[in-house]
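so i finally got all the pieces together for this one. its two components total, 515 residues if u count the protein bits. some of the lines might not be protein, just check the labels. i wanna see the whole assembly predicted at once instead of chain by chain like last time, that was a mess tbh
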Amino acid sequence: MGNPPNLLAAIYGWLNERFGIDAAVAFGKKKVVPVHRESVWYYFGGVTLFLFIIQVFTGILLLLYYRPGADSSFESLQFILTQVEFGWLIRSVHSWSANLMVLAAFIHMFSNFFTQSYRRPRELTWITGMVLFLLALGFGFSGYLLPWNELAFFATKVGTDIVGAVPIVGKPMLIFLRGGEDVTGATLSRFFGFHVAVLPMVFTLLLGLHVLFVQVQGMSEPVSHQALGSDKKRTMPFFPNFVLRDVVLWLVVLNIVAILSVFFPWDLGEKADLFAPAPAGIKPEWYFLFMFQTLKFIPGHVLFLEGELLGILVFGLAGLLWILIPFLDRRGQKNQRNPVFQLMGWIIVAFIVVMTIVGFVL
Amino acid sequence: MDRSVNPDSDRNGRRKFLSLLLGGALIGWLGSLLYPLARYLIPPKIPEAKLTTLKVARVDEVVPNTALMFRYGRKPGILIRTQEGKFSAFSAVCTHLDCTVQFRSDWGIIWCACHNGRYDLTGRNIAGPPPRPLTPFDVNIKDGEVYVSEREG
């Protein structure tokens, strides 16, 4: 009879013989993380990943009781919140973690922008990251509708109507998203399908690719650090040093999510009424607020364009340029800092922050 | 013609023909696969009884300087009674981004909460982002009942 350590060694040996795990372990042992002034930003990708894992976990739990449909969504949420033991907690964690995940993704994205991590050879890491970010927004937008409350109903009307204003493809896209001309129970069914099947599948595949790229290419270093001689560079082993720090931070994040969920449980609101006016003070989720607020400020007509179309075109173009940053930053490709891009980045951050605050206050 | 003179060109011709045949078949096969999928994604049109006139309320149900929401087919409508007691009705769909508008008795206007769009009581867009006036309904009063109907054209 073998004792446990021998049993583990035996299992390891059995697997190693078949799959060559030694190589992966050697890779993990060899991998290092650069240590420098900007190292703190390395943790935000991991935090985003951790929050995504929480989302998958709590999302599956919610699926045990949630019933999609115009006559059942809101009611099943009420059931989860009032009848199911700790249902309020699971639902609150799902909502809070979703918001923090978008926040962590924002920080991850901007820190990579400012440290120019997207520069050669990491262009595709940036692009997969950007697509993941858009998918995360898609998760947020589709998930927001699922409780079928008043706010969600109008947010979906506005959001899908914006899609509908895109020239040529807009109208068919709107019909496809809404499952008809208007936001109805058909929209809810579709959003449910996107939220729990389509998006998780695509997101997980891309996430695997994104993380694989990071493993293959190693951590990116800021321009100033890369220029140092190898004798001046400090590093730490990925395992166990960096991983343990990651885990400690994950525990902190889990505690933050728990505290927020317990002390600030998420509201359910009023059930959606298809024929009631939009309530005063209606706002989208905070991460759409800066765009929403900008749309409010654009007048009905600017020159020959409808204001909303102008807003869509500007935001669409800005988003496209943002995705293509690795190819636009010529200096970055030569491993040089790019003051113009840095300044632009700060203007964008300032714009988002100011518009978000204005959106909250007004 | 002697076939043995240039066997390669003959073979190439046959190869091209086969590629074309197989390629065409592949495209046809893909089409027959994707067409039903694409059609499936487009929701079927649900037939709707064509409304021409709708009885919304009794005249005495709507006091001056208030409004009443009603459903016109699948869309919301709004019936407004002004301070002077006159009736007007509009589609309540904001022309900006599809939100549902409301009557603000305190401001004496029609207001959309989503993006602070404003219309006067004739439905004209007067402030904020709406690009067009609200779609008006015709209002008729018969035997103390308010009827709305879609305006022709």
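Residues 33 and 39 of chain A are 8 Å apart (CA to CA).
The radius of gyration of chain A is 23 Å.
anyway lmk what u think
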